[in-house]
């Protein structure tokens, strides 16, 4: 929504604005909340905040923040990391995500001082195509994964599932 607001703000007042709004199905900011509801759009209606020169609207401090309750692979890894943070673990151990030149991703997650630090995971390779592959294993108390350019989420989910099993 932020991107759309930035685009519409840059078009505001131009003849292109209305055609862009129709294509993107964005109600006019001059419309009412009822108009938004009629157009099946979720909208709070006209804003009470003054426009900034950049066209971005800023919420008042303490305003209710809307978040989608979606569990992504990144959010799962964030939760896993936060659960390990105890004032010591995060200073000694951690997570590394790097790119590979073939192309792809490399993921290293240190297992020291976790419930899985002594667990074994043999090297597993899954090759579905040139850019669709994943390889993962545990070596010296580190979970390793290497994967294709579109498989990072899969690698993170493999780690979370293995760790929680």
Explain what this protein looks like in three dimensions.
By secondary structure, this protein is an alpha+beta fold. The protein has two domains: 1-66, no CATH class; 73-164, no CATH class. It has six helices and five strands, in the order αααααβββββα. It has helices at 2-11, 15-24, 33-38, 73-84, 89-92, 152-164; strands spanning 95-100, 104-110, 124-129, 132-139, 142-147. Helix 4 (73-84) crosses helix 6 (152-164). The radius of gyration is 23 Å and the shape is globular. It starts with a helix and ends with a helix. The relative contact order is 0.11.
Would you kindly provide a brief summary of this structure?
The chain has 165 residues and is of the alpha+beta class.
Straight-line N-to-C gap: 38 Å
Helix segment tally: 6
Mean pLDDT across every amino acid position: 75
- Rough outline: globular
Biggest sheet descriptor: 5 strands, antiparallel
Radius of gyration equals 23 Å
Q: Please count the beta strands (DSSP E, at least 2 residues each).
A: 5
Order of helices and strands: HHHHHEEEEEH
The assigned structural class equals alpha+beta
Strand content: 15-25%
> Percent helix among the residues?
25-40%
Number of self-contained structural domains: 2
**pLDDT < 50 runs, ≥5 residues:** 1-54
* Largest beta sheet: strand ordering: 1-2-5-4-3
């Amino acid at each position: 929504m932020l991107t759309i607001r930035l685009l519409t703000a840059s078009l505001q007042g131009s003849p292109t604005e209305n055609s862009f709004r129709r294509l993107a199905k964005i109600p006019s900011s001059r419309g009412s909340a009822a108009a938004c509801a009629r157009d099946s759009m979720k909208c709070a209606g006209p804003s009470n905040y003054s426009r900034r020169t950049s066209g971005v609207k800023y919420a008042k401090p303490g305003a209710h923040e809307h978040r989608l309750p979606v569990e992504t692979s990144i959010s799962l890894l964030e939760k896993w990391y936060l659960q390990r943070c105890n004032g010591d673990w995060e200073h000694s151990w951690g997570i590394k995500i790097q790119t590979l030149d073939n192309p792809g991703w490399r993921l290293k997650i240190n297992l020291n001082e976790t419930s899985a630090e002594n667990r074994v995971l043999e090297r597993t390779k899954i090759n579905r195509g040139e850019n669709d592959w994943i390889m993962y294993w545990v070596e010296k108390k580190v979970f390793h994964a290497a994967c294709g350019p579109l498989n990072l989420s899969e690698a993170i989910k493999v780690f979370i599932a293995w760790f929680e099993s």
